[in-house]
Design goal:
Blueprint lengths: L2 E5 L3 E3 L4 E8 L6 E8 L6 E6 L6 E3 L7 E6 L4 E6 L8 E9 L15 E2 L3 E6 L1
Parallel strand pairs: 2-11
Antiparallel strand pairs: 1-3, 3-8, 4-5, 4-9, 5-6, 7-8, 9-10, 9-11
Length: 127
């Protein structure tokens, strides 16, 4: 199984950029469809971004489309979430998730589909 560890979260200002990392160990992420989710206190974990196992198909929540980019570095076995033009509403704990799949083109936007999760990294955007 794969272990996932997020990093990169910190306090930033509105309009800043930030890149989150999700380092995987145990297995190659090339066997997994990957996603990013976030949660604020009192709310359900929500989908942010995902890509297929092949990394050729991506999917983004409407709230982040055009501002966030998910990517993968197979050599580093790491998934990234580049976040630009950050807003106060982006403040949350961000989680990386993985699902081992045989197919290569599907993306997964629901938390129930993912089998592996990191512990999260806090992103705080101040005005």
């Amino acid at each position: 199984q794969v272990q996932l560890v997020e990093s990169g979260g910190r306090l930033v200002q509105t309009g800043d950029s930030l890149r989150l990392s999700c380092a995987a160990s145990g297995r190659s992420i090339s066997d997994y469809a990957m996603g990013w989710f976030r949660r604020v206190p009192g709310k359900e974990r929500e989908f942010v971004a995902a890509f297929s196992r092949s990394a050729t198909n991506t999917n983004y929540a409407d709230s982040v489309k055009g501002r966030f980019t998910i990517s993968r570095d197979d050599a580093q076995n790491t998934v990234y979430l580049q976040m630009n033009s950050l807003k106060v509403a982006d403040t949350a704990v961000y989680y990386c998730a993985g699902k081992r799949v045989s197919g290569t083109i599907l993306t997964y936007t629901r938390t129930q589909f993912y089998d592996y999760w990191g512990r999260g990294t806090q992103v705080t955007v101040s005005s």
